[in-house]
Write a structure and sequence with these properties.
The chain is mainly β. Helix content is 0%, strand content 52%. The strands form 2 sheets. Strands 2, 4, 5, 6, 9, 10 and 11 form a 7-stranded mixed sheet that branches.
Length: 123
């Protein structure tokens, strides 16, 4: 049985940073495509970024490019979303997803999802 769990959310002022972590049991991140998504209040879930199974390729939505970074620690089997220069519009529940389709990850075509962690950026 696979479990995916996010941690690290919280309240931060605009311009600040947060680091979200995604851990999994029953699944090895280095063998799957992993994605980060978010759902802003009152809006649909949206793609934030993804990491290839090799760890060599990352993709980001335009609004977070240059501010967010996805990385992986194979020894700990964790995937991290480092968020810098946060803006109020980054406020959302953030989700980690694993075993995503390489070409479908932007559409949320992933098999395993975490429960989400709240990120609130105050102005």
């Amino acid at each position: 049985q696979v479990h995916v769990v996010e941690s690290g959310g919280g309240l931060v002022q605009a311009g600040g940073s947060l680091r979200l972590s995604c851990a999994a049991s029953g699944l090895t991140f280095s063998r799957v495509v992993t994605g980060w998504f978010r759902q802003p209040p009152g809006k649909e879930r949206e793609f934030v970024g993804s990491l290839s199974w090799t760890g060599g390729r990352t993709y980001y939505r335009d609004s977070v490019k240059g501010r967010f970074t996805i990385s992986r620690d194979n020894a700990k089997n964790t995937v991290t979303l480092q968020m810098d220069s946060l803006k109020p519009e980054d406020t959302a529940v953030y989700y980690c997803a694993a075993a995503c389709e390489m070409t479908g990850v932007r559409l949320g075509k992933c098999t395993y999802w975490g429960q989400g962690t709240q990120v609130t950026v105050s102005s």
